[in-house]
Amino acid sequence: MGRQCLVPDFPGGDMLSPMGKIIPPVVASGSMTGDGPPVIDIDDAVRLRAWRADDAGVVVDAFADPDIQRWHFRRYDTEREALDWIEATWRDWRAERAATWAVVWTDTDEVAGRVTVYTALEDGHGEVSYWMLPQFRRRGIASRACTAATRWAHALGLHRIQLEHSVENDASEHVALRCRFHEEGVRRGATMHADGWHDMRQYAHLATD
Ligand SMILES: CC(C)(COP(=O)(O)OP(=O)(O)OC[C@H]1O[C@@H](n2cnc3c(N)ncnc32)[C@H](O)[C@@H]1OP(=O)(O)O)[C@@H](O)C(=O)NCCC(=O)NCCS
Fold first, then answer.
1. Whose CA is nearest to atom 31 of ligand 1?
2. How far apart are CA 53 and CA 168, in angstroms?
3. Beta bridge partners of 47
4. pLDDT > 80? residue 16
5. Helix, strand or coil, per DSSP, at residue 134
6. Pocket probe mutation, ligand 1, options 72, 166, 174, 198, max atoms within 8 Å of Cβ
7. What is the pLDDT of residues 23-39, one digit of tens each?
8. Domain limits of the chain?
């Protein structure tokens, strides 16, 4: 799925039977309904929609970008591989593990990027992740998409949305701060990248923020 950060409690829930638990699930299973994540019109210009099979070429282009490869640890060289990625987004929605949207221009439906909220319904947690195609960067699109996806997650009932990036990823840091995530610290040597272990800066946005 191109997920960047592997915070230990994702995907959520433990493997034990719910019998004996004294705290009910924060969000009931069955809350992520329908065939895929809902269309969200962020403003007049930008929309979030589910990925479609005919977006496969854009996914190949995205993962050819060195920055997306660097921070998301993978590449897809063929449309068949990209379609596998798209189909995984559909499976993750049906399994209530993640909502992944294409970020598109509303008037042309051209894909500018991707935003995901990984969901741990029982725990009431989420984690947001994003990339933008190079030609669409520095126009505030990632910030708007991340904010909209976070709002959607809180509206679903998730209390805490996490975000994490390498301390070397300045662009992602700016997005996190622009989206009013609160910094919570740095996990040292937390995630293996192509050039070795990186310290990872953590943030969260609470429903009450
Ligand atoms: C990170 C990324 C999604 C940002 O997308 P974007 O659409 O350019 O971000 P925005 O336009 O919303 O910019 C938000 C802020 O980041 C700043 N910013 C964007 N790119 C930056 C860069 N390369 N260096 C420093 N600041 C940057 C913007 O100036 C803006 O700052 P401001 O709030 O002070 O005005 C994009 O650079 C990207 O796809 N990078 C490769 C993949 C990646 O890093 N994914 C995130 C992994 S955690």
1. 174
2. 33
3. 41, 104
4. no
5. helix
6. 174
7. 999 999 999 999 999 99
8. 40-206
